[in-house]
Hints:
- By secondary structure, the protein is an alpha/beta fold.
- The chain has three domains: 4-144, Cobalamin-binding domain (Rossmann fold), CATH 3.40.50; 152-383, tm_1862 like domain (pyruvate-formate lyase- activating enzyme, Alpha-Beta Horseshoe), CATH 3.80.30; 391-452, CATH 2.40.50.
- The chain has helices at residues 20-35, 59-75, 86-90, 92-96, 113-122, 177-181, 189-202, 225-233, 253-261, 278-283, 290-303, 322-333, 362-385; strands at residues 11-16, 39-40, 49-54, 80-85, 103-105, 131-132, 135-138, 152-154, 160-163, 206-210, 240-243, 268-274, 308-315, 339-344, 391-397, 405-409, 414-417, 430-438, 445-452.
- A seven-stranded mixed beta sheet has the order 2-1-3-4-5-7-6, sandwiched between helices. A five-stranded mixed beta barrel has the order 15-16-17-19-18. It has a four-stranded mixed beta sheet with strand order 8-9-10-11, sandwiched between helices.
- Helix 12 links the parallel strand 13 (308-315) and strand 14 (339-344).
- Helix 9 (253-261) runs parallel beside helix 11 (290-303) and helix 12 runs parallel beside helix 13 (362-385).
- The termini are far apart.
- The model is unreliable at 127-132 (pLDDT under 50).
- Bound molecules: iron/sulfur cluster.
- Iron/sulfur cluster is lined by residues 168, 170-172, 175, 177-178, 212-213, 247.
Amino acid sequence: xxxxxxxxxxxxxxxxxxxxxxxxxxxxxxxxxxxxxxxxxxxxxxxxxxxxxxxxxxxxxxxxxxxxxxxxxxxxxxxxxxxxxxxxxxxxxxxxxxxxxxxxxxxxxxxxxxxxxxxxxxxxxxxxxxxxxxxxxxxxxxxxxxxxxxxxxxxxxxxxxxxxxxxxxxxxxxxxxxxxxxxxxxxxxxxxxxxxxxxxxxxxxxxxxxxxxxxxxxxxxxxxxxxxxxxxxxxxxxxxxxxxxxxxxxxxxxxxxxxxxxxxxxxxxxxxxxxxxxxxxxxxxxxxxxxxxxxxxxxxxxxxxxxxxxxxxxxxxxxxxxxxxxxxxxxxxxxxxxxxxxxxxxxxxxxxxxxxxxxxxxxxxxxxxxxxxxxxxxxxxxxxxxxxxxxxxxxxxxxxxxxxxxxxxxxxxxxxxxxxxxxxxxxxxxxxxxxxxxxxxxxxxxxxxxxxx
Length: 453
Ligand code: SF4
């Protein structure tokens, strides 16, 4: 039983680290708390409740989490402080020892945040974890993580993020996500369709499908990702869908063909490669080789020559010799992709990658990142240049009055509308534009409005 009077009138501060999934979940926490009468603390205002949704993808992420917790505790000395997310799951004991933290919720428990808060505030909370003086921990072992915290929320801009899947069964040797988020699981297509209809009623026009390993969708319900895509495509009020990231071995030819003629799935792909060297891919226990990856890119280009293709690459992982890195560089140089998201490898406790003896030093990691980022810049610039002068549709995002507006084309080219041309009513509207040359900091193409789309 939840007593809403304990929530009413309280002010909450939120802090999120990590991926889109975390941001989407935090935004859902905010929505749930808002429904209970909790408002968001304004800038400089002291909060009664702090929610910190953490990430543990790298050592730096862990460090940032600890810093954020300390800062929020310091700035909100009377607040009830809740820490959840991947770092809270993996390092719950360490988090519970941080001065000022009241409640640590693991990945299985965060779905029941409101219940936990209600119990804590009414003094009926049972303690099933370590109780470090005043801090209570609720966290189950990874294998027991079963809940799915649904989330469909507006990001800080125009787009909505729909969580379609959580967890991962792949256990790549460098990754802690399966330990932090548990095994792959998903809700039913029916429930996701209902969430999207509700978002459409709130005004959503573009939705990004998020998850940890989205292509694995259907394991829990016996459905398939393809079924989900088709069901969502039928919801006419949503004009655009993007898929945040798909493992190459799960990106089916059927899906590529479908996206090329679908009503609302955009010609925009984000595919993690991690390495172009088959030796390294084997060490990582990835589920494909460079040949399969190249075939997928070729297939996308065959159906959608103008698609934006973003690729994740990890540099400096254990076992990446200079020869392996050169193979990766040459592979990516010859691949018709649009942008590289480059991540330096970070050692994670408990991962099997630590058994690989060959270590890459930090200086080499930086040099390799730099070379790949330069390659990425060259590719993105060439892609953007192809569309200068083209007529296309852009979904514009809210901008402060008197500032230029930004938005994206269907194939994810960032577009800038000058402050003179920007209008409040263009927010969340599809507009027909003509693309011009690069803006002053070369992060977008300038545009002139032709008409409403
Ligand atoms: S596919 Fe690999 S890298 Fe991605 S979340 Fe799963 S284990 Fe981690």
